[in-house]
Design brief:
single chain; alpha+beta; six-stranded antiparallel beta sheet
């Protein structure tokens, strides 16, 4: 997945729908494996943590704290972790491995990663992190900015299916100035200066010929009108379409 820049202002909480999506996945996993206190997901924040991280190319990472396997194994069996003999530690870690494998599978499905996707050790880039099992829980979940954005897009409300309004209707009340160019005549500067009251300037268009319509001073490609004498002012009669 391509990199994405952070697009939320610093300190902005993530959408509650995204938090609920991730928390629901952790809750379902926790309900399956733990008879005692479940492991809940904390709120997503922009931070890193002292975890060993494994991640998918899809931009989703799972972090484990020191002794996380033993802690998880103890919770699966609902026993105290405490000080354990090497044999006990090995047993708890073996119990935890299947539990953690199930968590990785659920997270991969959440990220819509391919079935063959591999969890590889990595150092995560700055992104969004939430702990699992308390503020300093044995596990942590991290999202790259690109994955965060993709999941936010997934949980956004569906846009209404109503069609957009008509552009013509939206502009219907807009006022415009309609005019008609009756004609033009070519004169030299000397002829213009010599004009006197009573002189006649011959235009290049017969008075009875249709003339183009202009809207706000710009002639339309289509639309013609005829000038009709009337009192107290001449009127324009449309003789061809302006659509």
């Amino acid at each position: 997945m391509s990199a994405a820049r952070s697009w939320l202002p610093a300190g902005t909480p993530p959408p509650s729908a995204l938090q609920a999506l991730l928390a629901g996945a952790i809750e379902a996993w926790s309900a399956r494996w733990f008879a005692g206190t479940p492991m809940a997901l904390s709120s997503l924040v922009r931070r890193s943590g002292d975890y060993a991280w494994r991640g998918l190319d899809a931009g989703l990472m799972l972090g484990t704290a020191p002794d996380a396997a033993m802690t998880v194994g103890a919770r699966v069996l609902d026993v105290a972790a405490g000080e354990r003999t090497p044999r006990d530690r090995a047993l708890l870690e073996e119990v935890a491995e299947e539990c953690l494998a199930d968590l990785r599978t659920r997270l991969a499905q959440l990220a819509e990663a391919p079935r063959a996707a591999e969890w590889r050790p990595l150092v995560p880039a700055p992104g969004w992190t939430a702990t699992i099992g308390g503020a300093h829980g044995p596990l942590a979940l991290a999202l790259s900015d690109a994955t965060f954005a993709a999941l936010v897009r997934r949980v956004l409300p569906v846009a209404p299916a109503d069609p957009l309004g008509s552009g013509a209707a939206a502009l219907a009340a807009q006022g415009v100035t309609v005019s008609a160019a009756l004609g033009s005549a070519g004169l030299s500067v000397a002829d213009l200066q010599a004009l006197e009251i009573g002189d006649v300037v011959v235009l290049d268009r017969p008075l009875a010929a249709p003339v183009p319509i202009a809207v706000d001073g710009t002639a339309l490609a289509r639309g013609r009108v005829r000038v009709v004498a009337a009192e107290p002012h001449p009127i324009l009669e449309v003789v061809s379409s302006v659509a």
